[in-house]
Amino acid sequence: MNKVIIEPFQVIGISVRTTNANNQAAQDIAELWGRFMNERILEKIPNKIDNTVYSIYTDYQSDHTQPYTTLLGCKVEALHTIPEGMVGRSFDGGNFASVSAKGDLMKGLIVNQWSEIWKMDLDRLYTADFEVFGEKAQNPSQAEIEFLIAVK
Fold it and tell me: Which of 33, 37, 112 is nearest to 71 (CA)?
């Protein structure tokens, strides 16, 4: 695990309010990804910096055991134009713990890594945590995903 500083950034994408209780997030986030892919959201995001997809967890009610919002989208240069049905958000950046995971996205890579993160002794802020799906995530069976967790 590495400590990194993230600069403030803006994202446009789609979101869902969910919870980890009763495995609800697994269902809701899978449906959000399905919508992201089926509706070709990536192609519709204006002013995007690149095609890296961010899965952001924010608006925590308190911590990962309580409701939060998941936003799937791309970093953008500006939030001037937000297409109907999408959301635009600004994030402050700050100090983050960085963890990478490699493996098959269809075999629980993301959920398994979060289970490990939840066990870590991190001084978490619960402001915005996210996963980065860049070039190394293009092959779903051999993906490399970066996880960034906001810390004090």
Answer: 33
